[in-house]
Amino acid sequence: MDSSPHSNKNIKLVLTYDGTSFFGWQETKEGRSIEGTLSQALEQILQEKVNLQAASRTDRGVHALGQVVNFITSKQFTLNELKKSLNSLLPNDLRVISLNETDPLFHPTTSAIGKEYHYHLTYGEIQLPHLRLYAWHVPGQLNFEKMREGASYLLGTHDFSAFCNMRKNLNYTDKVRRIEELEILSMEEGKLKVMIRGNHFMYKMVRNIVGTLVYVGLGKLQPQDLLKILHSKCRPCAGVTAPAHGLHLHQIFYK
Amino acid sequence: MDSSPHSNKNIKLVLTYDGTSFFGWQETKEGRSIEGTLSQALEQILQEKVNLQAASRTDRGVHALGQVVNFITSKQFTLNELKKSLNSLLPNDLRVISLNETDPLFHPTTSAIGKEYHYHLTYGEIQLPHLRLYAWHVPGQLNFEKMREGASYLLGTHDFSAFCNMRKNLNYTDKVRRIEELEILSMEEGKLKVMIRGNHFMYKMVRNIVGTLVYVGLGKLQPQDLLKILHSKCRPCAGVTAPAHGLHLHQIFYK
């Protein structure tokens, strides 16, 4: 890799954040964003304009354990020192886990071969206060076995139109996606985790899948209905969109 | 139990709360307290002055999964309806798990035969943002085996003077206490939980024990030093007081 003083370097960062007090990834005039907060800190240190790209443009309230972003710079610095300076400058709800120079052709979105999300749920009569900002509380009981059966119909390659929300400036050439793993994990003390791994998720797809599986868990839908919903390609036929604050971007996979 | 209209009833509540935005259990002019918030809601519903007693007067920032409190009332109400009214009136960082009429002689502190606390820690280079309000972050690595060996010296009945902080209006007749269980539980992803169960804890005793065990984990103290510290009865000989926000009152035990 060319490391002459003025050559461009492609810097890859892995971030973790508590999405509670952010207006999502994308810079906005409404309030603090992850993109805005991180680029401001980088620009203060590097004294140049920084253009960040993220693997996942997380919505307002969504958390991340392993968000991947990059930027191009010709500035000279020690990687470890830049990481330390960033972490001392950033607020404590946003941390840089790692910072490396990477392949010039690396792009966090287009180079990604898969993503893993964890969706956290609590259930029962009482919402646990210390989890209220990190898990969706479903009052009542959930039938995990039925949720698991429902989830099994979504595994593999399908047209996920029924689980994709519309958004301005968002045109998918097709809505065929592959889900490689979809597990319903029962945790201690009224907690449930939905773990989902796939090749490329569409807008609100994870949250729509979770909302539909919760309908199955509550008995509002039968497990086999998932197959009908998939075939219908009809968004209103599926369940509710699960709220943002239960969603945790867990990991992005690269070759 | 006498249930005539004007007889006094002893009402026992089990509470869970996120201590982050409270100034602790005790009512104070500094800001919102758990005692103040709960008594205000009860007084609004029952239309009488309510005097609450708690099993553990948790400090500012300490969380609870199973705090036990009581009050005496002669008012008439359905237990389940009072619980529902309270939970709809209370802020969502404070929830009533259960509400029952109990023995007239029951007192949350003096009737207790034991308490269990969980102390949550994270360790490593990066503090996980979504746990920053619920776990103490220790930068660096912890030697769990040495912490376990250190903990073993504290099990059983000892004079815990070295682990007890002074406070105005607090006079212990003696400082002999029994620790029945003290476990160092390694969790996933850089997390550690110290589980401690005993007959009666003194002021800041759990946090002083955790702070001292962390010193052992970091190599600042040797496991055998715990025995010397116990025998010294000298508070400054032990480790630092672990911060309040990692402490979770887990359960109170009664006969």
Overview of the structural elements:
The structure is a homodimer of 255-residue chains. The first copy, chain A, has 255 residues and is α+β, with helices and mostly antiparallel strands. The first copy, chain A, is 22% helix and 30% strand. Chain A has 5 helices and 10 strands. In chain A, strands 1, 2, 3, 4, 5, 6, 7, 8, 9 and 10 form a 10-stranded mixed β-sheet that branches. In chain A, a hairpin with a 4-residue loop joins strand 8 (176-186) and strand 9 (191-198). In chain A, helix 1 packs across helix 2 (79-89) and helix 3 (144-152) crosses helix 4 (205-218). The A-B interface holds A 16-18, 63, 65, 87, 92-97, 126-130, 132, 134, 189, 248 and B 16-18, 63, 65, 87, 92-97, 126-130, 132, 134, 189, 248.
